[in-house]
Amino acid sequence: MIAYIRGTLVMIQEDAVIVDVQGVGYEIVCANPFAFQASLHENLTIHTYHYVREDTQVLYGFRNEDEKVLFTKLISVSGIGPKGALAILGSVDVDGFIEAIEREDDKFLTTFPGIGKKTARQIILDLKGKLSAMVSVSAQNSANTASPGVSKELQEAQEALKSLGYSEREIKAVVPELQKGHDQNTDNMIRQALALLMKNQ
């Protein structure tokens, strides 16, 4: 199983990215390839799931480990294939989707293409309680980052990084460096954080 690909992002296509690893180009199908636009022609790491069937082999790519875990759980549900799972990931926040499962909110789940009421109930039946730990970790981290000792600018920077697709774990790793700066505005913190996150990859 190929857990991740680390190399140079050389091309972004409509439904995939091409990553060059020592002269070999890997085509990685993604929910939203243009989420990697900022890393074009730079080194990056993409979390991957190697999907193998008798008649096909596909590498699916994700911005973080949480997206990958949700993808693998979704394709285990009867009635949901890789394309359906990617459609969900491309239009929803991971934590929000998991919370909908925990609430048994089948009305919300049926708003996604290809998911009818029967499939929504199957998702709830198969996955409820199995993904809640991911939400708990994120919620705990959010609570920590919203502590009184954290500046408004830092909180805003963290929210901006979340909107760009970075996970709570990735953001938390660079917060100590951001807190070392004095009198930094939100934009400067975001730029510094992006530089640190790219370096960490």
From TrEMBL:
What is its subcellular localisation?
Answer: Cytoplasm
| GO molecular function ontology, one term from the record | DNA helicase activity
User: Which domain of life does the protein's organism represent?
Assistant: Bacteria
Query: Matching Pfam families, A to Z?
Result: HHH_5, RuvA_C, RuvA_N
Swiss-Prot/TrEMBL keywords: Cytoplasm, DNA damage, DNA recombination, DNA repair, DNA-binding, Hydrolase
Q: What is its main location?
A: cytoplasm
Q: Where is the Helix-hairpin-helix DNA-binding motif class domain?
A: 72-91, 107-126
- Cite the residue spans of the region called Domain III: 151-201
The record, for InterPro entries, names: DNA_helicase_Holl-junc_RuvA_I (IPR013849), Hlx-hairpin-Hlx_DNA-bd_motif (IPR003583), NA-bd_OB-fold (IPR012340), RuvA (IPR000085), RuvA_2-like (IPR010994), RuvA_C (IPR011114), RuvA_C_sf (IPR036267)
Domain description from the entry? Has three domains with a flexible linker between the domains II and III and assumes an 'L' shape. Domain III is highly mobile and contacts RuvB.
Functionally, this protein is described as follows: The RuvA-RuvB-RuvC complex processes Holliday junction (HJ) DNA during genetic recombination and DNA repair, while the RuvA-RuvB complex plays an important role in the rescue of blocked DNA replication forks via replication fork reversal (RFR). RuvA specifically binds to HJ cruciform DNA, conferring on it an open structure. The RuvB hexamer acts as an ATP-dependent pump, pulling dsDNA into and through the RuvAB complex. HJ branch migration allows RuvC to scan DNA until it finds its consensus sequence, where it cleaves and resolves the cruciform DNA.
Subunit-structure text? Homotetramer. Forms an RuvA(8)-RuvB(12)-Holliday junction (HJ) complex. HJ DNA is sandwiched between 2 RuvA tetramers; dsDNA enters through RuvA and exits via RuvB. An RuvB hexamer assembles on each DNA strand where it exits the tetramer. Each RuvB hexamer is contacted by two RuvA subunits (via domain III) on 2 adjacent RuvB subunits; this complex drives branch migration. In the full resolvosome a probable DNA-RuvA(4)-RuvB(12)-RuvC(2) complex forms which resolves the HJ.
| Family from the record | Belongs to the RuvA family.
State what protein this is by name: Holliday junction branch migration complex subunit RuvA
Q: Which organism is it from?
A: Lentibacillus salinarum
This protein's encoding gene: ruvA
